[in-house]
Amino acid sequence: MAKLPEEFNLEEIDQEPRGTTLKREILVTLRKNKMASFGLIVIAILVLVAIFAPVIAPYKNAVGFYPEEILKPPSVEHMMGTDDLGRDIFARIVWGSRVSVEVGILAVAFGLIIGLFMGALAGYKGGMADTLIMRTADVFFAFPYILGAIAVMTILGPGLENVIIAIGVLEWAYIARLFRGSVLATKVNDYVEAARAIGADDKRIIMKHILPNAITPVIVYSAMSVGTAIITEAALSFLGVGVQPPRPSWGWMLSDSRAFMSRAPWMMYFPGLAILVTVLGFVLVADGLRDMLDPRLKGMSEHVTRG
Amino acid sequence: MSRYIARRLLQAIPVILGVTLIIFLLMFILPGDPARMLVQKGASPEVLESIREAHGLDKPWYVQYGKYMWNLLQGDFGTSIRYRRPVLDIMKDHYPNSIRLAAVALAIEAVIGIIAGVISAVKRRSFLDILVTLSTTILVAMPIFWFAMLLQVVFGLKWGILPISGMGDGSWRYYVLPAIALASVHTAYTARITRSSMLEVINQDYIRTARAKGLSEKKVILKHALRNALIPVITIIGLDLGGLIGSAILTETVFSWPGVGRVIYLAILQRDPPVVMGGTLILVFIFILLNLLVDISYAYLDPRIKFEGRKVD
Amino acid sequence: MPRKFILSLTIFLVLILTVALVVGCAPKEKVDKGEESVSEEPVKGGTFNAFLMEPVTLDAAHSQESEGIQVAKQIYDGLVDYEPETMELTAAMAESWEPNEDASAWTFTLKKGVKFHNGRECKAEDFVYSWSRVASKDTASEVAYHLSPIKGFNDCQEGKADILEGVKAIDDYTLEVSLEYSYAEFPVTVGHPVFSPVPKEEIEKWGDEFSEHPVGTGPFAFVEWKHDQHITIERFNNYYDGEAYLDKVAFKIFADEETAFLEFEAGNLDDCQIPLGRIKETQDKYGERALINPMLGIYYYGLNMEAEPWKDNVELRKAINYAIHRAIITDTVWEGSRVAATGIVPAGIPGFKEDAMPYMFDQPKARELLEEAGYPGGKGLPELVLGYNTGAGHDKVAQAIQAQAEEVDIEFDIAGYEWGTYLDKIQSKEITFFRLGWLADYPTMDNFLYPMFHSENAGADNMTYYKNSDVDEKLIEARKETDEAKRRELYQEIEQIVLEDATIVPIAFYKTNRVIGENVCAYTRTAMDDTSYEFVWLSK
Asked: Is the peptide bond before C346 cis (omega within 30 degrees of 0)?
């Protein structure tokens, strides 16, 4: 397997002169970048919607009880229709974005903090620490993810903060395993040895030399897992153990829509679409990041070009 | 070989022990009183106390855990608090449903995933490739329960051609939609991995040699490339089976499938520790066994890998 | 306007109750081919495919959840039963019963020749055995408390005695029951399935597995229980009270109502629960085959009487009562599958009072009371949280009520808890404003008022910790009262006191939500939400 080059410069590689298929390759890269840019735009829109929710749609339309407006199909007044309590679905989608953004980012950040620390410890120290941490992680892998999330939510009780904790608690094991492997690969490099030889302490070696070089796969993984976290939040809320109503959440909206599948299908179309597009944004960005940063895949595509 | 298997099995013991301990502690720190869940009315402190006593819930957790593990060693998974039935019986009722559904989903995943991946690798940059890439990307981002609901609306409510929930008399028609929903994300991943694995292999020297020898493209792909490209794919598909059984809760919920995921989920909500323990333990066994099988077959398929060599990563 | 609405609704309800409980075989609507109208004579035979969710147990000693009771009602019979339409007490295995002077002891005379499904005759001794089994410590029955008025109950519960001291077989057909106190309505309570006789030899044969091989004296004998698939019972040909028409009843087990309803629509089920959210469309489609009848249950919000701010603030408690427009919620959120509560005791209980509720939707009044309570315009109101258990659409009702209360400046958050922690938190007063429901065990006013409002049940069934010595005394007095009219008056008085204290906010009374197939005849969904399949027949 290819190792990470010490100085990894994307532009340099891209500017390498190639054969006749170079044009096609550039086109592919562009297209891939286009996809990634599309992903970035989606994420940007999502974040903007979450921030400017009060400007886009009044909160009072997203919550409450409007007996006169129950189950209205999409119209000029309610562009995505209303639900079974007469609430405006568009307003709920807009406000629901806040839950998704918060959970997506904070849960992964939480997982990263624990996971990176544990992964670094296991990978760098090795020995007992490694065994202990990785066997603990194994237990987490053996337990089905969604069941684990449900169990943690049952202990903590519903609520946005708890969803963040639950996802973070499960996510760390994956990050730790990934980072450990990457640290192990980086550790053996000459420059780490050199740093150690001149007497740099562990903390410095990890922060200055190992982290920047070993973090690449974790970055790709994190982008992906923001998407996963958003789906997990929706799933937990869908099962009724996620965030707390009346706070609008896309997962709750889907759960609400089940009883009205035939009578008011708009109740299920829009929240699902919102989740799909949002997660797609993160998947595309993750794909783009991987193509740019992961030397393995890059190497592979070079093979292809030459062939 | 047998030494390797023995070592792997030994390694699994702490994981299993860890899982039992974690679940037991989880169930113990779970707020709420199992006895209270059993009594709907008239739950005076005395009544609750006697119910607790009758189910052995009044002992400290380590006593209960020790007793559970002792029974487990003798093959006794305990009795459900709620249903007053042996946990093993409950599992016998539900595991077959889960495994059957997972098997069908796995078949879909393998067949469609591999075919789509191969086509898109061989016909790189064709319309088909773009179609496969696009749809797999979308499927990866798809919330599975929403996909399941869309299937219900289209095939069940709009066209009325397939049953949309339960397993009825167990005929194949009941399997179609849940299996598709369950397989969706995995199929997308399989297609993606097959594609990149194929691309990698196609450009290896021996393939080029084969091509140079003038073998037909079809023969090159089928005889040489596919075989080698499928090794990592098969690994992943093998491991998926465990995931397909354990994380099918959402699919089972949407389609009311009487599977084991839902049983465990409900047992968590109903505070029925023996059922949660038993159900999860069997899952973990399956998971560990599959891992082992995959590793063995991996080494078998790819002679370059020595048994001792592969780390779990 | 709303008052009028609710009044007319009530009248409508009472009409339904008295007229439409029994759905006879509807004459075929289209006779355009000149067909002879279908014979109204009951036809014997056929298998009835009934809807069910997986029960916890079929053992009479543990019968508490409604799923198990659906089946238990067919397999077991008790001393008495309830008239399906009026819920009045009728004889079953007992021919007659007599109280002593102060109703503290009851003598039941049993019918002769009543057979268990295994062929043996059921005699008085079987009742002694069965009731003692329920009360005994080893059985650890969740519903043993139904036997608590009987002498010696506590000794049995504590394991000091094996046999209930208060139950004696005087001879084969005479059963004498002595109680700890006078209880005029005791015979009504023995209609609960937990009082059904079970044969000792079968219990000894099967042990814990009796639930999988239940044997009773009912109109149907147990055949098979394939878990999560079906429970099948067949006609018992030696039934003492006339054979049933159906050959078999196959209870098809479903994980949820939605799935079952689809099967019903496909014609694979003869009866089915209507899922929430589909009541109106079902009524439109199936007309009178949708059985939306009053049911003996109340859905309420409780206010903890020992916690701030409810404690000592009757004005605040009343203000909430006035702030809620119940009929709008039952009409929209529940789609008419519930009806606005008109008191605590629901329509359908013998003796229920029609216009018990003093609080009709009145926003100015609510504001006025809020001011009197010391929170003018909601100012100074502490942070309140309305708790509910997740699932079954309780969050919807809570959100609707939250919005309604906000209109009169009573603001609170809502919080869902899963059932496993919910009751604990109410009991420990962590949640002091909460949703609960109460479904009748037997059709008596006592069954609503005594458990929920007697101080001795505080923290158990009396979740509001309501303690009123006047009410306590009157509840005891009412139990002793042998004159039916006087007793009802007493209970109505108690209901009024409790309502005036506004310890709960009655929201709605339950209704049955059943739909039956085209050829189903003589099917009654009782106010206890069960059906005696012995009367049902299928026309062809």
From this structure: no
Pick from A138, A170, A269, A306 the residue to mutate for testing the B interface (most B CBs within 10 Å).
A138
Look at residue A126 in the predicted model and tell me its pLDDT: 84
Of chain A, the percentage scoring pLDDT greater than 70 comes to: 85
Q: For residue C316, give the nearest of C403, C385, C362, C381 by alpha carbon.
A: C381
CA distances (Å), origin A74, targets A69, A78, A267, B57, C435: 12, 6, 10, 54, 33
Domain C7-247+513-538 CATH assignment equals 3.40.190.10:
yes
* Minimum distance, in Å, between the CA of residue C418 and any CA atom of chain A: 8
Q: At CA C169, angle to CA C164 and CA C171, rounded to 5? A: 170
* Contact check, Cβ <8 Å, B141/A151: no
Phi, psi angle pair for C235, to nearest 5°: -60, 135
> From the CA of C40, how many Å to the nearest CA of chain B?
33
Selected for mutation to probe chain C from B48, B82, B84, B153 (highest C CB count within 10 Å) is B84
A280 touching B (Cβ < 8 Å): yes
Partner-chain residue, chosen from B19, B137, B143, that has the shortest CB–CB distance to A283: B137
Tell me if the domain spanning B91-266 has CATH number 1.10.3720.10. Answer: yes
**The listed CATH number (3.40.50.10260, 3.40.1110.10, 3.10.105.10, 3.30.450.20) that belongs to domain C294-511:** 3.10.105.10
Please provide the average confidence, as pLDDT, over all residues in chain C. Answer: 90
Confidence at residue B47, expressed as pLDDT on a 0 to 100 scale: 83
pLDDT of residue A230 exceeding 50: yes
Q: How far is CA C398 from the centre of its chain?
A: 23
- Cβ distance C278 to A154 less than 8 Å, yes or no, reads no
Query: Which residues 381-420 of C are in CB contact (within 8 Å) with B?
Result: 418-420
Can you give the pTM of this predicted structure?
A: 0.86
Superfamily of domain A18-62+82-306: MetI-like (1.10.3720.10)
Domain boundaries, chain B: 91-266
Complex ipTM > 0.90: no
Q: What is the pLDDT of residues C46-100, one digit of tens each?
A: 999 999 999 999 999 999 889 999 999 999 999 999 999 889 999 999 999 999 9
Higher pLDDT, B16 or B146: B146
Q: Which residues contact B11 (CB under 8 A, 6 or more apart)?
A: none
- Render pLDDT for B258-288 as a digit per residue (tens, 0 to 9): 899 889 998 988 889 899 999 989 988 888 8
Residue in B44, B53, B256 nearest the CB of C255: B256
Where in chain A are the domains? Answer: 18-62+82-306
The residue among B231, B230, B257, B261 whose CA lies nearest residue B243 is B261
Report pLDDT for B11.
81
pLDDT grade for B126, boundaries at 50, 70 and 90: confident
Chain B nearest CA to A248, separation (Å): 17
